[in-house]
Amino acid sequence: MEPIRFHIVTLGCSKNQVDSEGMAQLLAEQGLVPAEQPDDAQVLIVNTCGFLASARRESAQAIQELLEARRPGQVVIAAGCMAALDEHRAEIPAGVDAILSTREWPQIGQVIGRLLDIPLAPIRPNGGSPMLTSFRRARATGPSAYVKIADGCDHACSFCAIPLIKGGQASKRPFDVVREIRELVDAGVKEVVLVSQDTIRYGADLGIKHGLPGLVRLIAEQVPALRWLRMLYIYPSPLVFRLIDAMAE
């Protein structure tokens, strides 16, 4: 029996890229095989962006193109941020076979199993907080990789839809972050980039005081083979000074 092949189209930010890698890893563990081109895949997944109207149009266009070109037997799944809000979900083209919201991507295997009527056993992710999944990082696509350390935001800025789309902040536990980085380094990665919506507040939801500076120290101690550590989405906070001290150490 030929293995089922899947193709993922990733749109939007680096956090979406990490979620797509998570989906690909979980599907590979269930025996599915990635395909370079949509024509070679039975399962087509679009990991959408819903932050801006232009991004939603791009996501809708990508889905529509796959729907128009799909052959009998192919299924199209819309995942990611565009599916998080009803008003944005309404912009997803009609005809998709399933919709997965931004934090539902770990269910991708079960969804595909139902659509294709095949037995896909649920795969337990390798940890994470109750709201944020951590997964194995056994594959590296280059010398640099993103690691998502948290998702969501607790601020209520009037100009930003992130809390509505992503929900409140949910941080990965420090040892899950360290494990992911160690796996990436073992796979040949030289540089890791920490990302989240509000990176400087990492760990606040877990009750960790000075979370990000402490995480930087822990990574340096536990993964000494990592050559470079970068961080994105660092917003103004008194913790920045503690972070600078940790980096200087």
Automatic annotation (TrEMBL):
Cofactor dependency: [4Fe-4S] cluster
PROSITE patterns named among the record's database cross-references: MTTASE_N (PS51449), MTTASE_RADICAL (PS01278), RADICAL_SAM (PS51918)
N-terminal signal peptide: none
Domain (Radical SAM core) ranges: 139-249
SUPFAM superfamilies (alphabetical): Radical SAM enzymes
Gene Ontology molecular function, alphabetical: 4 iron, 4 sulfur cluster binding; aspartic acid methylthiotransferase activity; metal ion binding
Pfam families: UPF0004
InterPro entries: Methylthiotransferase_CS, Methylthiotransferase_N, Methylthiotransferase_N_sf, Ribosomal_uS12_MeSTrfase_RimO, rSAM, rSAM_horseshoe, rSAM_sf
Assigned GO CC terms: cytosol
Domain MTTase N-terminal: 4-117
Listed name of the protein: Radical SAM protein
The species this protein was found in: Thermorudis sp
